[in-house]
Amino acid sequence: MNKPTNTGKLNIRALIKSTLMLGLFTLLPACTPVGPDFVKPDIEIPADWSHAGDEWLNTSTINQPQWWRVFNDPVLDQLVDMAWQQNNPLEIAGLRVLEARAQLGIAQGSQYPQSQLITGNRSYIFPANNSGGGSNFWTYGIAASASWEIDFWGRFRRGIEAADATYLSSIAARDQTLILLTAQVVNTYAVIRVNQELLRIAKENIKIQQRSYDITSVLFKNGSDSELDMQQAKTLLLSTEATIPGYEVAVKQAFNALNTLLGQLPGTLDNTMTKNTGIPVLPSNIEVGIPADLLRRRPDVRQAELNALAQNARIGLAKADLYPSFSITGSLGLVAGGASGTDFGDLFSSDALTLSIGPTFYWPFLNYGRIRNNVRIQDARLQQALVNYREVVLQAAREAEDSMVAFNGSQTQTDILTKTVVSAKRSNQLSVLRYREGFSDYQRVLDSQQALFTQQQRLVSQRGVSVSSLVNLYMSLGGGWEDQSSLPLISSQSLELMQQRTDWDDVLEESIPETNGKNVNAEETENQY
After folding, report:
1. Which of 30, 422, 443, 7 is nearest to 229 (CA)?
2. Does domain 42-111+153-196+293-323+369-527 have CATH number 3.30.470.20?
3. Average pLDDT in the 468-482 region?
4. CA 85 to CA 495: how far, in whole Å?
5. In three state form, how does the secondary structure of 341-383 look?
6. CA atoms within 13 A on the CB side of 300
């Protein structure tokens, strides 16, 4: 076969010009990205809490990253550790962090040539008879091409900024999930201990009331007392016995809830967990820090700020569409074939080389206001995010103040009820003594026994309220997420399954970046990766 003649050589001068143009275009990303730079809302925070001077609170710096350990309860500590390792919603939050990290990787990859292709073809051509073409022939081709949109207006840099802030926001969301999980475990544990204590008190009072009923029953049978005293004693006894099933149900249901928080089926907890060790004892003094600590410690405040930062970057993304985009497109290939006749081997001859390179631009200038309206949409969303940030800060301050008020009030009530129970016990002793000595009727005994049981119930319930109020206080202050050194992002089972399904490289092994509760700003976020 005759080889096709070369219709032209590579234009070296044009290639040099294109290369120089490419070098000029690579300098364009140094331009400042369009769109506003993020400015965090300035929110006035009081210097101190309005209720921090009360007896049980002080404003010294909070230094209790694992606040639940103030109860000095090894069982509770073990339960929290188990929940951190096994809770399903917490693992889902960790998986969302991985998802956001992968999205950040996509955004980072947009800085480089966005399209890279290798193509190949082998075609048999049948020219039309009326076209004056010759006989049928084969064509062959192999080519590599790439297209790189230059980040002239900062579109991709803004995209990275938005993805980076979204990634950090997912970490803050996981921290918030950790806080809520810890609070739920402690509160559920307190419910179990409170109902176990109520159950114990009820059984103790049943023994006391059973003896009273036996005495009145014997006296009635001997004709020394009326049936009324016996029936009243029986009524009180049955009334107390009726509380037992309710407490038992509450304990079992709380254990079911606790098992769920631990990511396991009901009935899984062993006997060491079910033994009544008493209601957690509160410390005598609580450190609450200062209001400014909220902005550092509360993950939901950080998340709101990061969401605003991400949305701020999206304005730049939208504004970049108002301007032309510039790209460098190039291809290198081997082409052979034609009516003169060729074979596949000719594809690798020097005459088969083809090269193209040059700049292009794209500008949708007739967009009928769609791009500008999209910018307005993004700006309105940014303002929503900024207002939401202010609202989150205000709600955080309110929750902290409310929790302090509730904690102080619950402690005061607990102190009063403790004295009330002491008084009720003494009243019961005196009523029994006076009854035995004949100075009062049996009604006094019944009244004192009923009052004792009622006040004991109130005290135990109030101690549970005090524990819950302290949990709410720590939760409102935002602590409990800082020390995650032993906490994996996802479970080993999920890690193994995901590695089997997908090439995650070393992403699954990456540690979460340390935020240390610091407020973010545009420079920190943009340069973190």
Report:
1. 443
2. no
3. 88
4. 13
5. CCCHHHHHCHHHEEEEEEEEEECCCCCCCHHHHHHHHHHHHHH
6. 20
- The structure tokens listed for 276 are 């009544």
For the segment 46-94, what is each residue's pLDDT rounded down to a tens digit? 878 886 566 777 777 666 778 899 999 999 999 999 999 999 999 999 9
Percent of the chain with pLDDT over 70: 84
pLDDT, one tens digit per residue, over 113-167 is: 778 888 888 887 777 666 555 677 778 788 888 888 888 888 889 999 999 999 9
CA-only gyration radius of the chain, Å: 38
Give how far the C-alpha of residue 282 lies from the chain's centroid of Cα atoms, to the nearest Å.
28
Overall size of the chain counted in residues: 529
Of 208 and 2, which is predicted with more confidence?
208
CB 101 within 8 A of CB 314: no
Q: Residue 302's pLDDT is what?
A: 93
What type of residue sits at position 506? D
- CATH class assigned to 1-30+114-150+325-362: mainly beta
pTM across the whole model: 0.84
- Taking the mean position of all CA atoms in its chain, how far away is CA 437? 67
Contact by Cβ (8 Å): 348, 367? no
Question: Rounded to an integer, what distance in angstroms lies between the CA atom of residue 343 and that of residue 337?
Answer: 7
- Number of alpha helices (DSSP H) and beta strands (DSSP E) in the chain: 13, 6
Strands (E), 67-178: 115-125, 137-150
Residue 120: count other Cβ atoms within 10 Å of its Cβ.
Answer: 12
The two structure tokens encoding residue 290: 């200062």
- The sign of the CA dihedral 474, 475, 478, 483 is positive
How much is the pLDDT for 205? Answer: 93
Q: Where are the domains of the chain?
A: 1-30+114-150+325-362, 42-111+153-196+293-323+369-527
Report the pLDDT value the prediction gives residue 1, as an integer from 0 to 100. Answer: 41
Per the structure block, which two tokens stand in for 14? 């044009």
Q: Is residue 165 a contact partner of residue 520, using CB atoms and an 8 Å limit?
A: yes
Strands (E), 349-481: 353-362
How many whole angstroms separate alpha carbon 378 and alpha carbon 528?
Answer: 24
Across 225-229, 326-330, 343-347, 496-500, least confident range: 343-347
Per DSSP bridges, beta strands 115-125 and 353-362 are unpaired
Token pair 């193994």 is at which residue? 496
SS3 state at 128: coil
